[in-house]
Amino acid sequence: VVDKFLFVDADQIVRTDLKELRDFNLDGAPYGYTPFCDSRKEMDGYRFWKSGYWASHLAGRKYHISALYVVDLKKFRKIAAGDRLRGQYQGLSQDPNSLSNLDQDLPNNMIHQVPIKSLPQEWLWCETWCDDASKKRAKTIDLCNNPMTKEPKLEAAVRIVPEWQDYDQEIKQLQIRFQREKEMGVLDKEKTIQESGWEGPQKREE
User: Which InterPro entries match (predicted)?
Assistant: First the structure.
């Protein structure tokens, strides 16, 4: 029986054992998300959750990022969190503009009805929002978009994550090996067919 599940974005580098996150105490909340960092001050003008609707709605609570989260399925079902989120989604779906960042905005919008446990900041470090000093404590590094520089993610990965090039080379070698074995398998199959004298399916005489 699955009692918890973790979501991790594909553009995220994990630097720790995720069992630690699975075992994290959510203090009765159905799920846990990491809040957006506040430490990179030059990005203050881009922190949309600090003013307007979000500042009013959150009422001092943090705005959380959806790139990584853990869900306690027992608690989630017990409080009918799915039904609550679905109901709010139906209301938002009338306005297409409200769905632009749904996976993140929906749980933050429902924070009063479906509480969020804030994970420690080191569970998600993103250069866009977090200062350089906090990077050494990062359990995961997220390649989130930078609205100021608009740097492509693969370029950012090479620059930000020292181990990225090792991972990249490992994957490339795996791809080369897979392709080589695939081609060899095809050639071996063709050779076996030729040696057996089999000419393929024959047309049946009526």
Answer: Glyco_transf_24, Nucleotide-diphossugar_trans, UDP-g_GGtrans
